[in-house]
Amino acid sequence: MVKTILGQVKEFKKDSLLTPVFMILEVIMEMIIPLLMAAIIDNGVEKGDMDYIYQVGAIMAVLAVLGLVSGMLGAKFGASASTGLARNLRSTMFANIQNFSFANIDKFSTAGLVTRLTTDVTNLQNAYQMILRMCVRAPISMITAMVMAFLINAKLASIYLIAVVVLGGCLYFIMGKATKYFQQIFPKYDDLNASVQENVSAIRVVKAYVREDYENERFTKASGNIYQMFTKAENILTWNAPLMQITVYGCILAISWLGAKMIVTDTLTTGQLMSLMAYCMNILMSLMILSMIFVMITMSMASAERIAEVINEKSTLTNPKNPIKEIRDGSIVFEHVDFSYSKNSEEPVLKDINLNIKAGETIGIIGGTGSAKSSLVNLISRLYDVTDGSVFVGGINVKQYDMEELRNQVAVVLQKNVLFSGTILENLRWGDKNATKEDCVRVCKMACADEFIEQFPEKYNTYIEQGGNNVSGGQKQRLCIARALLKKPKILILDDSTSAVDTATDSKIRKAFATEIPDTTKLIIAQRISSVQNADRIIVMDNGTVANFGTHKELLETSEIYRDVYESQTGGSGDFDQEGGEK
Hints:
By secondary structure, the protein is an alpha/beta fold.
């Protein structure tokens, strides 16, 4: 974990090294000043030597300025190093997330990834700056002050040593108790972020069902869990302050009492006593700073583990050593394919799938909810890998292709349509970033999207809000289909992506496919028989298996499942847009 995190320092190594150097210089300046102060009292004030006072005072002023400059430079380089580390961590995590397979993404929740990229990185950024500055400054300051104190008077300095040992033991005990709570806090942030994310993205549903009170209660519960954990941790940490104050005041009293007796017996000078008091505060303040650092490091360790987990996560899908970068055609073959989302699944989602689809065919896929229709097509573009068996595209196993090339040639309009904030043209160019406006208009006409785009005042420059909230479900689906067509794929997969489109428009889209992209293999997942009945062949899925595979006419004769769905949708209880539906 530590190696992973430090590996992201990269170009900020110089700043990371200069920070402790300047902090050490600041400590050295601070440690010399009490000695000069003692000299002024003993050799200047008591003897009435003003020249000596001026000379030593000037030296003290120079040292103070040098200490100030060193501290400022240490702060500057520390800030640069810590913010640079945070930037690199976020960039590396985000880049790695882009390479995740669907299986990897399933492992991490969206809210969990957001927390890691924000809260966890911020915690680590603050901790790294504290480590570079205070974690160097505090122990060196404490050790140097202790050495100086022993050089002045070992008997009085031993009071500091005893105080440090006792206080250090107490702080270690407190930190150990608080650590377990901090380790539980950050996973709670995932729940909080999940609550916010779901509420904001589904705010229309929340309001439509008048569930504001429920969402408030849910958020309050998630927020309350974090509050309780922090309260428990902070209740333990509150012992830091009283323990520190007791130790500080105890040391001051002991040194003052013993020091006064030594001054009376001429075994200690007034200046030396003043120096010891200054070193006393240095030692104890350094110890207090160290306790704060331990708290921050304890909190950041949990964050560091979560960040390293994302950075070190390897995609379950990788390119072969010498990937094939050219796909011959859109033919698809499944040979004894089994698939499970988890290795520990008792039963596979897909079981012994055998299919042979020719290039340019239009294939309908129909089946009940949970029959694994989407799981089947996800294997074609290698969004998941098969558990057993093989999938071939263009006569070659999909595992032998370069994944980027494969996915460029297999366009998928997923069941959940997503549009991004930006203009319609910008959204369409996700399919081809170099597409001209004429290209975009052409595919929009094929997807029957041009008819509603032209009605917008800004037409193709109309701004789409995040998630496509300012267009209807059917409009969103047609834009996503157009975006997929812009890729000019050899295989086009429509995963229930015309469900929000009326049957007349659906029919127009299918006719456009037949005339405009005849050589593209088209797989259409649908719930409506009308969307697939004119396909060359239709796959009937049932409980993860291919129950039947044939033409519409053949399936009416041989498939009971298909016949039942057809009769229910054309007999008055299904698709009301079909002839025979409810009048």
